[in-house]
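Side project, low priority. Logging it here so it doesn't get lost.
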Amino acid sequence: MPFASKAIRDRARRRIALRVRAGEPCCFCGRPIDLAVPWPEPDSFVVDHATPTSHGGDDHGHGQLRPAHKHCNERRSNQPDGTVGRNSGALG
């Protein structure tokens, strides 16, 4: 699980969603993120860990969490099946 707890995940999602509402784009493709797109649509919002937790990253470091589209994050995934789980930060 990328986040240590559901509470940490939910706080991170809200914090990063505020940045998206302020105009921050996807960290991979640079396109805007529509927070109304429901999970698990490819363009849905997820929170990406700049350094994956499986490689020593955490949920708190400056610049560690950033907004992404689900499909952009999946292309970068270090999971064997290339998926990004709902715990990665999808809203709703």
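Brief comment: DSSP finds two helices and two strands in the chain.
Revisit when time allows.
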